[in-house]
Amino acid sequence: MDPRSADLTTVALWEGGDAVRLVDVPLPVLGPGEVLVRVLLATVCGSDRHTVSGRRTSPCPSVLGHEAVGEIVEIGAGGAAGDDGGALAAGDRVVWGVTVACGACDRCRAGRTAKCRSVRKVGHEPFDSAWPLSGTYARHLVLPAGATVARVPTTVPDTLAAPAGCATATVMAAVEAAGPLAGRRVLVSGAGMLGLAAVVAARDAGAAAVVVSDPDAARRDLAARFGATATPGTDDAVAPVDVAVELSGASAAVARCLDALDVGGRLVLVGSVAPGPAVPLDPERIVRGWHTVTGVHNYEPRHLRAALELLDRTRDVVPWTDLVAPAARLADLAGLLTGPAGTAPRAAVAP
């Protein structure tokens, strides 16, 4: 049956706390350039678990979820272009950017569309707004005109493609911010989904060594399988590095990264997206060490394409599929958001 023919879809509506309810709602009439997508597989980002637990704020009620892969069902009048400039069509398997920017404000003109002054975000919009079907924990979502939409290579399976629009693309932005990595010593702090992707990206960029630090021994073992050259515990000394990428958000880990920088070293902060204890900073050490500290939050459209290309290049040599658990039903989403974290870095639902 044509996914559009029933004119209804099912969403997992988050109503605050741990309340998630399946609701049937009408499919909208699309505006010019809008894209209706049937969700094939959605992965559960840790930020959504933080929203449900109260660690971060988000509009409520809403349809959460932003990491997914889907199939285009319908496109509004005038059509829509993919990130490569080619026309999108019904049947295309696609991923999309987390942010939707205006393209006209000073930040957009400066190339920081992720920080657009009127940015909208997939999975972060109120259900009673003009964009109710914004989240991926649903059978369908609508992508507004101007959203970044990228066709997925046929060689990249859904389990690899689904996290590309958040975790993997964010890592590609962090690697770009780190500068050229060929021949350099890299420290990756945190061996979750982003950290493991960072290991692969750094090795792919030619890093001479990729050291992974994480308090969890099982995660460190997994990092070794993904190409880490050393996996010290958090109490072990770390040899000086040229680049540190901090993905855990833990203040102690940020300080550890600063301590590990060699002369000319660069620290890229990615995981610090919630309030935490302040980290002492010695300005003299920064000056004498020629150190650079920078931050990355979300990413630009080019990083989504870079993520898909990395996944395609490495799909046969990296155990990416081990990072995503077998898909659960949409009806089981509440347990994935509120229950204990699974052994795989990403839970998944197949709406």
TrEMBL record:
What GO cellular-component annotations does this UniProt entry give? cytoplasm
Q: Which UniProt keywords apply?
A: Metal-binding, NAD, Oxidoreductase, Zinc
Cofactor(s) needed for function: Zn(2+)
Domain Alcohol dehydrogenase-like N-terminal spans what residues? 31-153
NAD as UniProt keyword: yes
Xref: SUPFAM superfamilies: GroES-like, NAD(P)-binding Rossmann-fold domains
* Enzyme class (EC, first level): oxidoreductase
Q: What is its EC number?
A: 1.1.1.1
MF (Gene Ontology): alcohol dehydrogenase (NAD+) activity; metal ion binding
State the family named in the UniProt similarity comment for this chain: Belongs to the zinc-containing alcohol dehydrogenase family.
Q: What is this protein called?
A: alcohol dehydrogenase
Organism, as annotated: Isoptericola dokdonensis DS-3
Q: What is the lineage of its organism?
A: Bacteria, Bacillati, Actinomycetota, Actinomycetes, Micrococcales
**Gene designation:** tdh
